[in-house]
Every structure is written in C-alpha cells, then in structure tokens.
Write a structure and sequence with these properties.
280 residues; alpha+beta; Alpha-Beta Plaits; 10 helices
C-alpha cells in the first residue's frame, strides 16, 4: 500500500509539474512546440476557446479513443495523468488568470517552459507512465503498424511549431523552434540522470575482502574473473559490479584504504537491467 501511494504521488507531482510549466510559461508566451498543448496555443489565438479548455477537450477525445483501441490496461496510468493535466490547466486558467507573461524575459520563460515539462515527463517515463496527448496516437499507430513513431511525432510537432510563424510573429516562432530542438535532449538528460549508476572493473590481488564488502555492507553482488597481467605476467582477479552513486563512493574509498595497489575503472551507465536495478 505504501508503494502504491508513493507511486500515485509521483504521478501527481510529475503531472502538476508539467501543468505549471505549460500554463505559466508556455501558454502565456504563445510557444507552440509540443503536441496537444502546442496545438492548444494555436487554437486559443482565435479567441473561441481557451488553451486549457481546448487541451481538456482534445485530451478526453484521445483518451476515449485510446481506451477503445488499446483496452483497459492502457487507461490505468495514462488516463490518470491525462485527466489530471487537462483539469489542472483548466483550473489554473480560472484560479490564476493571466493576460501576459510573468516576466519581460522571453528566453528565461522559454527555459522554464522547457525544463519543467521535461522534468515532469522524464519522471513519468522513468516510472512507466505518460501524460497522454499525442503519446496516445503514437501507441495506437505502434500497435497496428511498424511505422517510425519517433519520426512521426517529431514531424507533427514540427508542423505545429511551424504554424506559430503564421499565427504569431517571427520572434515567437523562432523561440518555439528553439524549444522544440532543446526539449527532447533535456528529457533524455533528465532520464539518464535519474538512472545513473556506476559500473566497476576492479583489478586486484585479493578479491575476497572487496567482494565481502560489496555483498555484506553494500547489499550488492559481483562477479570475479581470473586474469593475467600482460606486462607483469602476474595472476590477477577482476571484480565486476554495478552500484548507485552513493555506494560507488563507499566502495572506492574502501578499496583505496584496504588495497591501494588495485586498478579501478569506473564508468557511468544509465541502462542496467537485472535484479536490483531495472526489469526488462
């Protein structure tokens, strides 16, 4: 139950983070990059409907289509995030009505319009969820074809962003293009940062104390291989293990204190699949 509550809180926090970045920085500056919210900015220009309300209507339509096509399993995570995001945007428009940007620094606002939704999306992706929108279209297309989803989504985002040049001015359009270019890299950067672990290769003479420290103190496991030094010709042992960043510092300090002649290679990795890390 605690784990489930923690998971729901993570979903809620991430989605509200996306909503805050979208409403306070994206909508008010007419930045058009990014799926349904970008399209909402364009439609809101007509004055017939607000960006938040249009996002709510489109998200509900896509959600119903996704539920019909993809089944109930799809709705569990995506539906909650999609509904919460749409309702949060509509509520913000009524609770904090804004007639213009928060500041007179468009580049600063662009940074927050990218960073907050990117961080929220990265957290959702990292726990196997999504905020809906055009992701639902991608899931449907992926189910029935082998079409390159990433390229299709990038093309649709590019078309919506390009429309900003026609609906608004060149400056707004250029900021939107810049936002589109940076957003995907920032999401990837956040995800890699969340999953960052350390991969150790330890070449040593006495592996037993080091392995004992890894297993009984750090609560991890390791593999040991027999090796031979190419230059010295001496028999060596190679210990392979993967740790989080805190554990990595402890192991490095332990080896330095107990076997200072050991040769240590430490690599950063964000893709470790197996027990204690991520499942397939």
């Amino acid at each position: 139950m605690k784990e489930r509550i923690r998971y729901i809180l993570m979903l809620t926090f991430s989605t509200l983070l996306i909503a805050a970045g979208t409403y306070f920085f994206k909508f008010t500056n007419n930045f058009t990059f990014g799926g349904v919210t970008g399209l909402a900015v364009l439609v809101a220009r007509s004055g017939l409907i607000s960006a938040g309300d249009f996002n709510l209507i489109m998200s509900m339509i896509l959600l119903v289509i996704g539920l019909i096509v993809l089944g109930k399993k799809f709705a569990a995570k995506t539906a909650y995030c999609s509904i919460l995001l749409s309702l949060a945007l509509s509520a913000m428009e009524r609770i904090w009505p804004m007639s213009g940007p928060l500041t007179d620094q468009p580049m600063l606002e662009l940074c927050f319009a990218i960073a907050l939704p990117a961080l929220g999306s990265a957290i959702l992706f990292n726990i196997g969820a999504s905020s809906g929108g055009t992701d639902i279209v991608a899931m449907i297309v992926k189910k029935y074809s082998s079409f390159d989803i990433g390229r299709a989504l990038l093309l649709s985002d590019a078309l919506i962003t390009a429309a900003g040049f026609l609906v608004f001015d060149i400056e707004t359009g250029l900021y939107s293009v810049l936002g589109l270019a940076i957003r995907s890299f920032m999401v990837d950067t956040f995800i890699e940062s969340f999953n960052l672990s350390k991969y150790f290769n330890v070449v040593c003479d006495h592996p037993e104390p080091i392995c004992d420290f890894i297993v009984h103190t750090l609560g991890r496991s390791a593999s040991v291989f027999e090796a031979k030094g190419a230059y010295s010709g001496k028999e060596k042992h190679i210990i392979l293990t993967a740790l989080n960043r805190v554990q990595a510092v402890r192991l490095r300090n332990y080896i330095k204190a107990t076997e200072p002649t050991a040769f240590i290679l430490i690599s950063n990795t964000s893709e470790i699949i197996g027990k204690g890390f991520h499942s397939v």
